[in-house]
């Protein structure tokens, strides 16, 4: 029922608190829907699910990019300037989606590995405030998923509604068996088929764009908990030198677990964010042209929703990466300012090792080329203004109108 479906959004519950792995609850449901997480082979639905998965993957990675660019070759003269921009602004994102699927889907097993690592990290969360902090992180991650769901779904629906008013199909990609100009019935069949396929693409894109944000929130939460543990070192009355040293060693192991958690997703994050960096500027530029010069009210709302989608594909995780770097700096500072002055030599030497290990911040590189940061995100987004400037200087808008 609805209460069960929404329970992972609750900030606190009267029963057991959620473990970290529950942060992927809604995301995993979405990934199962798009065919990326098959059931066990013993399940009676396994081969049916594999067929569904094959259909989705074929549609997203092969048919959709060809359908977009094929329509420009076969039926370019039928496009109005506004319809063309509405289509082409998404076409590059569809090609990017295919690339991101090729990067992520072969590595779906990493999500189970990540959850196993989170389970080990959760074992160190023994204090009530630590368990509550993990629970709040889980609820926050699932709430973020719902926000993404709302934004992405609104874009697809607004595009469909605007097409109904303007009399053109939502994205204008090629459908081999239906010509929307053959009559009202053919139009609604073509528009609805496009909406279904387009919504599947939008939903798949959402799954890929949100997993780094969930990962980043989990990483920050456990970094925060580790920092708090370091602050508590050698503050317990009556604690022996051996007990203090053992607790310090456990903190070092916690830090290594965090690095392992990063290494699980680093390759796929590098690939998917790099693919998005390649097209975000062009997509934003085309969308701004459409919004400024060719949109009516409803198509303008759909284009605005698409601009928001483009922004949240990279901006939140780039911002989280900046916060993670600050968290790493804070951890190093807390280690240095912890209660170590009157500790024994063994404790101090271990602390120096820990301090050295944490001085290298956790960072992510897109495609081994671009650091994933706000600066890089802004630089690639600035290409949008270049696109608009070139179009205005060449008077392309006046020629099209």
From TrEMBL:
Q: Any stretches that span the bilayer, and where are they?
A: 51-74, 86-105, 264-286, 292-312
UniProt entry tagged with the keyword Membrane: yes
> Which InterPro entries does the UniProt entry name for this protein?
7tm6_olfct_rcpt
The answer to keyword rRNA-binding applying to this record is no
Q: Name one Pfam family in it.
A: 7tm_6
Would you say which domain of life the source belongs to?
Eukaryota
Q: Where in the cell is it found?
A: Cell membrane
Give the protein name, as stated in the record: Odorant receptor
């Amino acid at each position: 029922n609805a209460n069960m479906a929404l329970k992972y959004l609750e900030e606190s519950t009267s029963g057991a608190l959620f473990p970290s792995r529950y942060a992927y609850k809604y995301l995993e449901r979405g990934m199962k829907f798009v065919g990326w997480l098959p059931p066990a082979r013993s399940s009676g639905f396994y081969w049916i699910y594999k067929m569904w998965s094959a259909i989705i993957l074929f549609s997203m990675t092969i048919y959709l990019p060809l359908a977009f660019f094929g329509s420009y070759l076969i039926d370019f003269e039928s496009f109005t300037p506004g319809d063309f921009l509405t289509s082409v602004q998404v076409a590059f994102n569809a090609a990017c989606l295919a690339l991101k699927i090729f990067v992520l889907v072969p590595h779906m097993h990493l999500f189970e590995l990540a959850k196993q690592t989170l389970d080990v990290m959760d074992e160190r969360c023994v204090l009530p405030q630590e368990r509550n902090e993990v629970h709040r992180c889980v609820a926050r991650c699932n709430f973020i998923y719902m926000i993404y769901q709302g934004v992405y779904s609104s874009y697809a629906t607004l595009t469909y509604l605007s097409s109904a008013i303007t009399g053109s199909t939502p994205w204008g990609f090629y459908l081999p068996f239906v010509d929307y100009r053959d009559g009202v019935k053919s139009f609604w069949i073509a528009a609805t088929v496009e909406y279904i396929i387009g919504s599947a693409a939008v939903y798949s894109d959402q799954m890929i764009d949100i997993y780094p944000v969930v990962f980043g929130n989990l990483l920050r939460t456990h970094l925060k908990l580790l920092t708090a543990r370091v602050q508590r070192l050698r503050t317990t009355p009556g604690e022996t030198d051996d007990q203090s040293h053992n607790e310090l060693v456990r903190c070092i192991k916690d830090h290594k677990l965090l690095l392992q958690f990063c290494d699980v997703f680093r390759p796929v994050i590098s690939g998917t964010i790099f693919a998005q960096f390649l097209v975000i500027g062009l997509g934003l530029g085309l969308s701004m042209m459409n919004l400024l010069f060719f949109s009516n009210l409803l198509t303008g709302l759909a284009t605005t929703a698409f601009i928001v989608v483009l922004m949240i594909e990279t901006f939140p995780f780039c911002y989280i990466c900046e916060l993670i770097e600050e968290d790493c700096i804070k951890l190093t500072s807390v280690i240095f300012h912890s209660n170590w002055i009157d500790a024994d030599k063994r404790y101090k030497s271990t602390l120096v090792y820990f301090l050295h290990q944490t001085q290298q911040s956790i960072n992510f590189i897109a495609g081994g080329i671009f650091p994933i940061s706000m600066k890089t995100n802004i630089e690639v987004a600035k290409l949008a203004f270049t696109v608009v400037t070139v179009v205005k200087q060449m008077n392309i808008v006046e020629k099209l109108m």
